[in-house]
């Protein structure tokens, strides 16, 4: 098993993409790669086509550079630059964020605030991949939460899984967070790590690439919330235990006694000043 030593947005985005592909179906394997994300198909126009060409040209140049660099060649990225005007329109793939292919789920939510609320619940924002054919017509070449052909296939949300590398990334992120000075001293540190890992497995793929390219910040916020939630629950339970001990004439926890002494000291200082 290959260890994950360093976490960065580039690798996280790649593993998120690979994980989502296991829940998706494409007419050709290469169509899983998209050049531009758009909110709906009506946004595909001359301007967005040109933007997609620039993105594709930059990506192809970067990939060629990395291949040459891996061969220990002394090369520069500028040597692999591609004129976006040379990119064919029919080579472009657009990711359209849509729930059109997701079955309706009447009554799932009382108030409908967005299209997703009226559809079956899925583990990440649904999308379709579209491209131009030789007749300059837009055709659907991929769907998330789908198995089989685009027209004769069916909706399915349980056939995929996150990649092993993304799972290791989740574990590494939680382990590193658990070593922070503000949390590493707690006796229930392992419980906090376990809760954080569970949280990431549940919401990890909900990261929306159309809104951000910084999954590291998204995951870190989720881990922070998980750690804080466990700390608050443990503190609440500790207060209940201390209350029961005091009610039965027994000494409470050391933390309760220290806090009581500190409060008493503050009260005495306040009285002396007055």
Task: Please summarize what this structure is.
This protein has about 270 residues and is of the alpha+beta class. The protein has six helices and seven strands.
What does this structure look like?
The protein is α+β, with helices and mostly antiparallel strands. It has two domains: 133 residues, no CATH class; 110 residues, no CATH class. It has six helices and seven strands; from the N terminus they run αββαβββββαααα. Strands 1-5-4-3-2 form a five-stranded mixed beta sheet. Strands 6-7 form a two-stranded antiparallel sheet. The model has no long low-confidence stretch (mean pLDDT 90).
Features:
44% helix; 6 helices; 5-stranded mixed β-sheet; 274 residues; 7 strands; two-stranded antiparallel ribbon
Give the spatial strand order of the biggest sheet: 1-5-4-3-2
Strand content: 5-15%
Number of helices: 6
- Unreliable stretches (pLDDT < 50, length at least 5) are none
Structural class based on helices, strands and sheet pairing:
alpha+beta
Query: Roughly how many Å apart are the termini?
Result: 67 Å
**Total number of beta strands:** 7
Q: What radius of gyration results from the CA coordinates?
A: 26 Å
Give the helix level as a range of percent: 40-55%
Largest sheet: 5 strands, mixed
- Please provide the ordered H/E string of secondary-structure elements: HEEHEEEEEHHHH
- General shape: elongated
Number of domains: 2
Average pLDDT? 90
